[in-house]
Specification:
By secondary structure, the chain is α/β, with parallel strands linked by helices. The chain is about 45% helix and about 15% strand. The structure holds zinc ion (ZN).
């Protein structure tokens, strides 16, 4: 069995057949860094993080390229309004995106190229298209792609040219030959800072969005590569135009197109009008990062995530069931080493889980398998069957790890995803255990004052103690 993935170009689920066996190259359209990231921005990177994790788990070497669009009309307009240099504005939000990705445990891409760093390659690309008769220079100084020069234009989204609407990035430029032609290169507009344009054989200007991705995908993944991904809203005009440019230049470009669905709130696509409450940093003040990842990352990538208080409550419940089991299993039989967890390949993982993931990343079927093993694990705990408890801990954690949700993995290990490593955690365990032992002694001696003082001391350090029938248990405040 190999991974079968839905291909938006052929509109069919078909096997992923890497160009080079064992290696997969993925280009994912990243953020236009014009403002703070909200949860809608996280969906794509999360979906492709799960894809990359599954590919790696099944023995592939993955090269994931996710670009940063660090110059565009909105960045220029917003930074000008704020009185900041555009590059400072873009970099500020680029860092906010990185922080948000890290908080949700989204693995870093292999490389994250910026549009502004690839002007030389863009110029070469345009020269090639001009030479081949697929582009022209307008009077404005813009360079346009000539959609009528490419008979296949529209093929990605199956639109005939005569029925096609003009793209959302159309500014009604009067020097275009056809309203559906699009700017690959933009001449400076009046009032734009000098630093926002580069000298080229076509005059000063700056990159267009579509050209940036065609150029960078080729630079890092080659003329032909395995997967191009992005949000479903990017299919037209962005991906249609990327493909047109690259095919017109004579490159094979993406062999498989994978698009993820939106996050909706109250049934509507996320947008600015929904306010600041859905900005990742704000949400993380009241929701743990693991719960947020659970809510956004355990829905099939082609299905809409409807985000609400209910979604968060359900994700909290599921996460607590999984992390609670793992905590109890570790207390009973010790922690299975992370190396062993990540070594569980398709030959060791439950067959039904492997089958679900290979079936277009069928995450709900995969979760059902994890739940089965969770139930078996809870039964084993109740029956004090240590062999079965250990086996369940290993399987549950290994499967959750494929989804980026092993409760003992780095981002979730300590309160609020604080990231203590194993040694720090062991030191903390030993210190808290010593204080709790003192407290047990104080209570035996009926020295209630001392017992309470020890408890308060722990509370002050952020350690919450719960007394249960089998002794005191503790956790860090705010950890769910
Ligand atoms: Zn793109």
């Amino acid at each position: 069995m190999t991974l079968r993935l839905y291909d938006s170009a052929t509109r069919s689920v078909r096997p992923l057949e890497p160009l080079q066996p064992g290696k997969v190259g993925i280009y994912l359209c990243g953020a236009t860094v014009q403002g703070s990231p909200h949860i809608g921005h996280m969906r794509s990177s999360l979906a492709f993080d799960v894809l990359a994790r599954w590919l790696r788990r099944t023995g592939h070497e993955v090269t994931l390229i996710r670009n940063v669009t660090d110059i565009d009309d909105k960045i220029l307009a917003k930074s000008a309004e704020a009185g900041d240099p555009w590059w400072a504005w873009a970099y500020r939000f680029e860092q906010e995106f990185t922080t948000a990705y890290d908080a949700l445990g989204i693995g870093r891409p292999t490389y994250e190229p910026r549009a502004t760093g690839h002007v030389t390659e863009m110029v070469e690309f345009m020269e090639r298209l001009l030479q081949r008769g697929h582009a022209y220079r307008g009077e404005s100084g813009n360079v346009y792609f000539d959609v009528r020069s490419l008979p296949e234009y529209g093929s990605l989204t199956r639109q005939a040219l005569e029925n096609m609407s003009v793209g959302e990035d159309d500014d009604g430029e009067p020097d275009k030959h056809d309203p559906r032609d699009f700017a690959m290169w933009k001449a400076p507009k009046p009032g734009e800072p000098d630093s926002a344009s580069w000298p080229t054989p076509f005059g000063r200007g700056r990159p267009g969005w579509h050209l940036e991705c065609s150029t960078m995908a080729r630079r890092y993944l080659g003329d032909d590569f395995d997967i191009h991904g992005g949000g479903i809203d990017l299919r037209f005009p962005h991906h249609e135009n990327e493909q047109a440019q690259s095919h017109a230049a004579g490159y094979g470009f993406a062999r498989h197109w994978v698009h993820n669905a939106w996050v909706t709130v109250g049934g509507e696509k996320m947008s600015k009008s929904l306010g600041n409450s859905l900005i990742v940093a704000n949400l993380l003040e009241r929701t743990s990062p693991a719960v947020l990842r659970f809510a956004l990352g355990t829905v099939h990538y082609r299905s809409t995530v409807e985000f609400s208080e209910v979604t968060v409550a359900e994700a909290t419940g599921s996460w607590e069931r999984f992390s609670g089991f793992v905590t109890r299993a570790v207390e009973r039989v010790g922690e299975v080493d992370a190396v062993e967890v990540s070594a569980q390949g398709p030959g060791q993982l439950p067959a039904a889980f492997v089958e679900a993931m290979d079936d277009d990343l069928n995450i709900s079927a995969a979760l059902a398998v994890i739940h089965e093993h969770l139930r078996a694990g809870n039964t084993a705990l109740a029956e004090q069957d240590d062999v079965a408890t250990r086996a369940a801990q290993l399987q549950v954690r290994a499967m959750l790890d494929v989804l980026g949700l092993d409760p003992l993995a780095a981002p979730w290990r300590t309160a609020g995803g604080g990231g203590a490593d194993g040694a720090e955690r062991a030191a903390l365990d030993a210190l808290v255990a010593a204080v709790l032992e003192d407290r047990v002694q104080a209570r035996k001696n009926k020295d209630w004052q001392r017992a309470d003082a020890l408890r308060d001391q722990l509370a002050e350090a952020g350690v919450v103690v719960e007394d249960s029938s089998d002794g005191a248990r503790w956790q860090l405040k705010g950890k769910s």
